[in-house]
């Protein structure tokens, strides 16, 4: 079962939190040395047909219109969905399928009213932090529909983890057991 | 507590604006029509305008965010169909998104 972790190292309240967060996961930092880990990136509620600069602009636009400067506080949430090696193998070790899972998960945040940027990483080198295939999500703390701030804790995170794992199971069924999947859906 | 609230609502600050005599007459006439003092009318209209602008911008923002999803799907479709980046359809799509991106830049300024 995949594990969803919320990054709690920073409180992401500073003005450049959005730029730093998105550049970190899309591996577009200045003097980036871990660029090879990035497989693909995408998102929901942001334009991923061009560079991450557009996503940064769009996150900041939503925050500015909803008065982030006056309100202060957290500007984004950073979550990581880690796939175990056996789960990646169940997906045929196919990054396109991981991308489809990431898109469904991103759709979940977007449905709640939050823009999200995701990036699929495969850390091959022996390093600290997340190893294997994992999906980073940078989620705008400001809801673009209501202007409200997102408040999420461990319980909600656990709920999301269950949902994301269901997305993964559904995709495995769909791609590798299509007949069974059709009958189960109908 | 009551005294504090009273001082917050107390109109003890003056603001001077420069307008033409015609504008002054129009404002006075409109205030009279609505049964308000000129101060109440001008302050109310200005603040309501601020709020209207703000809610208009927020509604536009929701549409702009949703537009991005449409653009994402269009670019995916264009890629799936193997349309080259010199094709007119692709160029028009790029033009559309550039226009939209200029709106985002205005928001952030």
The tally of strands of chain B reads: 0
Report the structural category of chain A: alpha+beta
Helix content of chain B: over 70%
Coarse morphology of chain B: elongated
Number of strands of chain A: 5
> Into which percentage range does the β-strand content of chain A fall?
15-25%
Distance between the termini of chain B: 40 Å
Helix content of chain A: 40-55%
Q: Low-confidence parts of chain B lasting 5 or more residues at pLDDT below 50?
A: none
Strand order of the largest sheet of chain A: 1-3-5-4-2
Largest interface here, residues on each chain? A-B, 21 and 18 residues
Oligomer: heterodimer
Tally the helices of chain A: 7
State the major sheet of chain B: none
Using the CA coordinates, give the radius of gyration of chain B: 25 Å
- Average residue-wise pLDDT of chain A: 89
Which shape of chain A, going by the Cα principal axes? globular
Description:
- The complex is a heterodimer of chains A (186) and B (109).
- Chain A is of the alpha+beta class and 186 residues long.
- Chain A is 44% helix and 19% strand.
- Chain A has helices at 17-25, 52-65, 68-71, 85-90, 95-112, 154-176, 178-185; strands spanning 3-6, 38-44, 76-82, 116-123, 132-140.
- In chain A, strands 1-3-5-4-2 form a five-stranded antiparallel β-sheet, sandwiched between helices.
- The mean pLDDT of chain A is 89.
- Chain B is an all-alpha fold.
- Chain B is built from four helices and no strands.
- In chain B, helix 3 (38-80) runs antiparallel to helix 4.
- Chain A binds chain B through residues 44-50, 54, 57-58, 60-62, 64-66, 110, 115, 144-145, 147, and chain B through 57-58, 61-62, 64-66, 68-69, 71-72, 75, 97, 101, 104-105, 107-108.
